[in-house]
Amino acid sequence: MTISLKSPARSSDHEKFSDEQYDYHVNNADPDAEFGGTEARKILEKKLLWKVDCRMSILVLIYILNYIDRNNAGAARLRGFEADLNLQGTEFATLLSILYVGYIIMQVPSNMFLNWIGKPSLYLPTCIAIWGAISSLTGVTTNFTGALLTRFFLGFVEAAFFPGALFLLSKWYKPNELGLRTAILYCGNIISNAFGSLMAAGILDGMEGKQDP
């Protein structure tokens, strides 16, 4: 028969002391310990941020192409776009503005759908492929109605990209990192304005008469 020499009160105090020690250890543990300390964690975060920046840089290129694609009708006008489609009166202006009708209609629903499916890696590339196909169809239209439909659906699909890109950035960057990345993304708009017309001029000069047998 074994007789315990500890009183119930002393045993309770010992357990209480152990719990307090445990709570102190949990609450004061270094969250960076598993990364090798605070400095090591900062180095790892910089490396990770650089990798994410490199991958997200493709968004700037896509935005440049998006904006050039959106404004290609204005460049094509210089090489007989109106004459080829037999446009009359305000029909050319209608073709320019109808794109933004589809663009405005789709922007908010697109991001709601993107948030619901949670797969920007699938949704955005799919939209890019579709708007590329629709843009190609502009080259085979022969009248105002065909051009009107392609321009409307082009804006409808392109509306997914810019808000979707902002949504994607917000998922990968901290709030204090997001402002700079958003500004860099928007630089794609400025770059496209600077070089879009030059690219269009080169393409139109190189393709002049190529459609003829």
TrEMBL record:
All residue ranges annotated as the Major facilitator superfamily (MFS) profile domain in the record: 55-213
**Primary subcellular site in the record, as a coarse category:** membrane
Annotated membrane-spanning segments are: 92-110, 122-140, 152-170, 182-204
Q: Which InterPro entries match?
A: MFS (IPR011701), MFS_dom (IPR020846), MFS_trans_sf (IPR036259)
User: What PROSITE patterns does this protein's entry cite?
Assistant: MFS
Query: Gene Ontology cellular component?
Result: membrane
Locations listed in the record: Membrane
Q: Which Pfam families has this protein been placed in?
A: MFS_1
User: Membrane topology type, per the record?
Assistant: Multi-pass membrane protein
Keyword Ribosomal protein annotated: no
Q: Which UniProt keywords apply?
A: Membrane, Transmembrane, Transmembrane helix, Transport
An MF annotation (GO) of this entry: transmembrane transporter activity
- Protein name, per record: Major facilitator superfamily (MFS) profile domain-containing protein
Taxonomic source organism = Psilocybe cyanescens
